[in-house]
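Reposting from the mailing list since nobody answered there.

I have sequence plus structure tokens for a pair of proteins and want to know whether others read the tokens the same way I do. The first protein:
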Amino acid sequence: MQVRIDDIEMAIEFVSSSMSDSEAYIDVHTGEIHYVGDLVDEPVPTDIFENKKYICLPSKVDLDLGKSVALDFVRNNIPEKIDVTYDIFSRKGAYSKFKNLLASLDQLDNWYEYEQDAFRRAALDWCRENRIDVSIGT
């Protein structure tokens, strides 16, 4: 069974959304992804919560794709702003302030690319750890 990495990433985004309690499970035999949540009307297998052939996909938080990725980006691209970045992440509303800082430094596009690459690497690592065969192309 081979699953497209884009489908895995979409499921992780779904699980990470703050709009509702949501989960996504992958059938390790077929590669089919099942979405579970208040906003989902599709039926799911009756044994999805008990059968070991279904693995719950992680959220971005589970994959540690938050503050640590932002700090790595700053260390690698604008190291002179690392103290400011630590300060930003010590307060509420960190991401909007962080993005404002990056916009003022003309680094926002670079950040989005870096963040997407980190997301892809983390999703691929999770798949490898769970023995899920993924395809990267379309």
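The second protein, same order (residues first, tokens after):
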Amino acid sequence: MESDKIIQSNRRYNLAQLAYREIKDLILQNKLKSGDLLSESLIAKELGMSRTPVREALRVLGQEDLIEVLNGIGVYVKDISINDMVDIFEVRKALEVIAIKSAIYEITEEEIIELEDKFIQFKQKQSTEQNTEPEGLSQIDWKLHDMIVKRCNNSYVKNIMEDIHFNIQRYLNMSFNALNNPEQSVDQHLELLKSIKARNIDDTVIILENHIDWSLDCLIRNY
């Protein structure tokens, strides 16, 4: 029946969407790293589905330039070059500097205090637990920088950041995995929040630029 074909088609689409989200999240979290070989059969087995939706998910990820097919070899997570990192951090820094100039007046003191508490709690936990996962710090970091963009009044900045946010978040996760001393990152964020709370634009811009440059340096040195 025609309705059965529609149901089957929708099921394949939903499974492909699920596979797409799962694989993309693994790339985002750096659990699938640049150069890793992707096996359709292993992914399908892990997700409990056939290879067809996995193949469709990989096709879409290829269109998004996250994976590449090497003929006769297989499907790989696409390599990231240092130039890629430098370029996107350059764009990120320029956009966040524009954003903070208006966002600094829109971010509430309650939001600042909430983030300060989260960074301080992470730092305290880090000092007592040797195996603290860097993912926690990455999430707090992203919340702060994402808030700066969302609170700004420049719609072009928001739209451009939306287009590149996946790669920025991916690189942030990579840089946090490379951190030998996450306390330094926490201290920089606390300094940034203190300056935002004081509504000091000039100091905030300098602190923000220095922090983003430092993050890029950490990423490059440990890549």
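Reply #1 (J.P.):
I read it the same way you do. The two ends are 54 Å apart (CA to CA).
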